[in-house]
Amino acid sequence: MTALDGPTVRVRVPATSANLGPGFDTLGLALGLHDHVELTALEENAGGAAGEPRRSVVEVHGEGAGRVPRDERHLVLKAACATYDLAGVTRPPLHLTCHNAIPHSRGLGSSASAAVAGIVAACALLGPGKAPDDGAVLDLAARFDGHADNVAACLYGGLVVTWCEDGSFRGARLATLPEVAPVAFVSEHSSSTEATRGLLPDRVPHADAAFTAARAALMVHALTCAPGLLFAATEDRLHQPYRRPAYPATAALVDALRDAGVPAVVSGAGPTVLALTTGEDLPDDLPTGGFTTMRLPVDVDGAVVTG
Q1: Given this model, what pLDDT does residue 140 score?
Q2: Of 31, 92, 116, 201, whose CB count within 10 A is highest?
Q3: Among 50-54, 187-191, 243-247, which stretch is predicted with the lowest mean pLDDT?
Q4: DSSP assigned state of 224
Q5: Which residues of 232-268 are buried (b: 16+ CB within 10 A; e: fewer)?
Q6: What Rg, from alpha-carbon coordinates, does the chain have?
Q7: Over the stretch 93-107, which tens digit does the pLDDT of each residue have?
């Protein structure tokens, strides 16, 4: 590959786990597993055939290599282009290089991380005075992903609470206690958020809604003040029971962890399982066939421009 001819920015984005059990479409947690992207604004005419506009280029290494689009359909590049459009700035051809570690379609926020990476990288290229403000960045990223819990956690790091107000997405960041030590059991199988969301009923009993609302509030308290309450805080009646048929092995692992007293939930739409431990050893006899166990600290930085 020839040397690139324009300014380059480098961005690191974390994996995320949404819902955390009861916080459906509301709570998100950033995790210490990262994708890295490099985005270069190319000179308009350099290197292209005479009379032809220069095209954007995408390189992908690691997760998704050989499977994701390598043109302007690529999510990181689409998000970067949308950022230029939002800023009202003519977009140059771009060269994107992705070094991916976050598993795709496993419930660890890979699509949210991709959208955030593209937006943050484009903002860094645009620079102060041209880049959209923080609120516009969150709102744009959330519209790519469909909801704000994953993207806010990816942007801000730590624990986030998200909501929609006057048609725009909002997020508030909270610091988790240092003893909170998440463990992800990453499934070898993928899952479609759209498919698992299709299993959810249009209505739930009022008692289940009230139960889950209380547990969501308790989850915020447990992660920030009282980790001894995490087991109760991870109970949910709003979405996980209805999604069980989509991934029996995931449901069995959650059940086994909870039977052993470990706070465990489905990560996002699954099929990964997230245990919210405080560093204790886990049982040896868990049904982890088909899962890779990863101890992932809470990421406190969120999306970072590294160069």
Answers
A1: 96
A2: 116
A3: 50-54
A4: H
A5: ebbbbbbbbebbbebbebbbebbebbbeeebbbbbbb
A6: 20
A7: 999 999 999 999 999
Helix-, strand-, coil-residue percentages of the chain, each rounded to 5:
35, 25, 40
Q: SS3 of 277, please? A: strand
How far is the CA of 287 from the CAs of 14, 246, 256, in angstroms?
27, 17, 7
What's the average model confidence in pLDDT over 108-129? 97
Chain centroid, CA 287 distance in Å: 26
Whether residue 244 has pLDDT greater than 80: yes
Which pairs from 61-64 meet CB under 8 Å and 24+ separation?
Answer: 61/97, 61/98, 61/99, 61/100, 62/35, 62/98, 62/99, 62/100, 62/101, 63/35, 63/100, 63/101, 63/102, 63/103, 63/104, 63/110, 64/98, 64/100, 64/104, 64/110
Task: Judge contact between 88 and 124, C-beta under 8 A.
Answer: no
Q: In whole angstroms, what is the distance from residue 59 CA to residue 21 CA?
A: 36
